Amino acid sequence: MIVLVTGGAGFIGSHVCDQLLAEGHDVRVLDRRDDHLPAGVDHIRADVRDPEAVTEAIRGVDAVCHQAAKVGLGNDILDIADYASDNDVGTAVLLCELARAGFGGRVVQASSMVVYGEGRYACAEHGTVRPGPRRAEDLDAGRFEPVCPVCGAPLSPEAVGEDAPLDPRNVYAATKLHQEHLADAFSRETGIPVTHLRYHNVYGPRLPRDTPYAGVAAIFLSALAAGRAPAVYEDGGQLRDFVHVRDIARANVLALTAPDPAPGPFNVCSGVPRSVGEMAAALSGACGAGAPAPVTTGQYRLGDVRHVFASAERARRLLGFTAGEAFGDGMHELREATSIVAQP
User: Cβ of 326: how many Cβ atoms within 10 Å?
Assistant: First the structure.
């Protein structure tokens, strides 16, 4: 099979290429960079927003794995046009050229858990509820937990399923949801199956560092590499699902190579929620006894949500995917891959 991987020189895309190559597939990469370009791929160095480059890249391919995107929360709202251009326009150009070429394969698209906004919550009296965005005055006062929108009582966070209401709460999240909507419209009009893989918090080798367009693991890793304590926002109790990049890549390969396409969204996660503070402590511990311990700052970002972690059941049942990488081993591997020297 010939697979086009957009963004195949990036953090996640390069791991997808590695696994496809290991299984004997031919891989073509469309990427304007060559940071982590695997040996043995056919590289078209261009932007996914370039229709001529996309036309060349899709020629003769059996499947498309769309990873190219601007990720992370970025700097501030001034990034909004760049996110819309890279993510929305880039996806639209790719889909347009696939339709124009009469493509007959399948598309697997990288989405994100950020499309959910806050995760799933239960009130003891009112059952499942949807708390609204947290207010700055509550966050300033250290009241980080959402409360029941009906009675104001404390809530219990629960695993979110793919059928949950979607409520993006920052620019990046809005563009990831728009990518899903564009691809769904494309699928309805062309009959081409599209699988959305909603990644949770991804970590592992090749994780980008020293950039505002990266996740919390990368931010903590950059601090430790510089000898600084990881700064944990809020009280560190935010719950997330941290999933290894090799598990993410394996989910992509399963979706690309399954005998029958599996349309629709899938959570790609470990299935084990952990707090941000726990992850910071684990990463600091992996760097050795002399590494600075995390510091809880009480700071916050209005675009952040409190808890979001996922149910892994649909991916297990329909894709045959279960995460296999151990969290503790992954933290040590991340430290080794970044060349942070453990202290005696």
Answer: 12
